[in-house]
Amino acid sequence: MGTAGNVQPKIVTGDAGYVLEDVPHLADYIPDLPTYPNPLQDNAAYSVVKQYFVNDDDSVAQKIVVHKSSPRGTHFRRAGPRQKVYFESDEVHACIVTCGGLCPGLNTVIREIVCGLNHMYGVNRVLGIAGGYRGFYSQNTISLTPKVVNDIHKRGGTILGTSRGGHDTSKIVDSIQDRGINQVYIIGGDGTQRGASVIFEEIQRRGLRVAVAGIPKTIDNDIPVIDKSFGFDTAVEEAQRAINAAHVESESIENGIGVVKLMGRYSGFIAMHATLASRDVDCCLIPESPFYLEGPGGLFEFIEKRLKENGHMVIVMAEGAGQELLSESMRSADRQDPSGNKLLQDVGLWISQKIRDHFSRSKRMGITLKYIDPTYMIRAVPSNASDNVYCTLLAQSAVHGAMAGYTGFTVGPVNGRHSYIPFYRIIERQNKVVITDRMWARLLSSTNQPSFLSPTDIIEDKKEEAPQSQLLNGENGRDDEALEKVISNTC
Ligand SMILES: Nc1ncnc2c1ncn2[C@@H]1O[C@H](COP(=O)(O)OP(=O)(O)OP(=O)(O)O)[C@@H](O)[C@H]1O
Ligand SMILES: O=P(O)(O)OC[C@H]1O[C@](O)(CO)[C@@H](O)[C@@H]1O
Ligand SMILES: [Mg+2]
């Protein structure tokens, strides 16, 4: 497996602290490339649109909450069609690959890349790479036409298949070169984007005229910079069914407890949003917010209190929550999946047993606990209507970017505007719930659960570690290190 990081950032500066973190372009390393007028200018659907082509100077601000004296800050290149393109329609030979875990909307993105290339740019040659990265060198390809992909957005999963592990950079680039592919669309999460970055570096090293475009996918919503990843809303919606079931079960019996475990390896966004959406949840546990079980202020005490007040309760937890407690009590070897991601133990099962044991030991109160694990059900469904629209925009932005000769970029909305973001910004860290942010405060006030943290610890630590921290607004800031310190000090 390769490592990313050999690409020189393309930074453009301007007045008043303006910074553009630009994406690479084929013309950066191939001289005298011919350009062509964008065929969209003759397309009846688009020619009526005023200012259809994006101005080359358009950029999107990363930070939109500013003060009178704030510098203008970091910007990304705005996505969209350009007046000039760097490929003629009949020379484009594109390929699409999906990698990592499933996510609602994968098929919609595949469909819209194929249809976007065909309907907007007259491209007829698009290959599907089967089974993730390793499919480049170990599987047959699938020919993708608008007809083949016509109905696929109605199905969950990915028609191309996916996998973890198996990223062999030079074999992948050999396959791209041997097949004469000149546009590569790579759909996947943080690991996939790391893989895309090294593919791009190798392509650039070989001097190939091949555009590499990443489309960010992750149900955990842990990709930084972009507003939100596709499929996330669908997953949150689907999680409501499990939470409703837990609520119905728990309120139908005296001292009923429903425990629901949701995905979220390192980031608790699904659990947090599903909790906020439901209003039936009494306690939400996420990896970013440490908690403890026993003693004053602990989870058991809170459960007892809530059962006395309401007679029932629902706990929602992300799969990555409380892993440190779990590994303390059940020593087990660290295991990894083929991509090197840590394999987690089932925290839902573990906590359910701990709660049962506690109440049977204390004999103060008899409880009935039902554990619901809808893990794969929330990601194997087709995307909902708003995710479908979002996937369409992502796919079209990626197509416009590749046709315009941009490469080594991931596409995604930044403050609502689709942008081209250099790979290094997408892979430098994972997005996490900021527990000193207003959103987590909203959750705490909605569930009325304890924070399991002492506020003085947070304030003291913020003073000490991050004097200029902006954790309160949590807008894609780079404050995770300070936050991690807060968390580890309060464990
Ligand atoms: N540092 C890396 N360099 C090259 N390839 C990588 C790297 N990290 C991961 N990959 C490859 O990317 C692919 C997907 O990675 P991974 O299984 O971590 O899923 P992901 O893209 O992070 O998606 P998700 O976590 O949302 O399921 C795998 O084929 C893996 O080999
Ligand atoms: O079982 P799989 O397919 O490896 O996927 C599980 C993981 O994928 C994710 O959905 C995304 O990383 C995690 O939340 C989860 O731990
Ligand atoms: Mg990942």
TrEMBL record:
It is found in: Cytoplasm. Transmembrane segments: none annotated. Substrate binds at T218, I219, D220, M263, G264, R265, E319, Y376, M377, I378, R379. Its EC number is 2.7.1.11. Signal peptide: none annotated. It holds the Pfam family PFK. Mg(2+) binds at D190. The record marks G191 as: Important for substrate specificity. One of its GO terms (cellular component) is cytosol. ATP binds at G101, R164, G165, G189, D190, G191, T192. Allosterically activated by AMP. Pathway: Carbohydrate degradation; glycolysis; D-glyceraldehyde 3-phosphate and glycerone phosphate from D-glucose: step 3/4. Keywords: Allosteric enzyme, ATP-binding, Cytoplasm, Glycolysis, Kinase, Magnesium, Metal-binding, Nucleotide-binding, Transferase. GO terms for molecular function: 6-phosphofructokinase activity; ATP binding; metal ion binding. Residues 95-400 form the Phosphofructokinase domain. It is an enzyme of class 2 (transferase). The keyword RNA-binding does not apply. GO terms for biological process: fructose 6-phosphate metabolic process. The active site is at D220. It catalyses: beta-D-fructose 6-phosphate + ATP = beta-D-fructose 1,6-bisphosphate + ADP + H(+). Belongs to the phosphofructokinase type A (PFKA) family. PPi-dependent PFK group II subfamily. Atypical ATP-dependent clade 'X' sub-subfamily. Catalyzes the phosphorylation of D-fructose 6-phosphate to fructose 1,6-bisphosphate by ATP, the first committing step of glycolysis. Homotetramer. This is ATP-dependent 6-phosphofructokinase. It comes from Vitis rotundifolia.
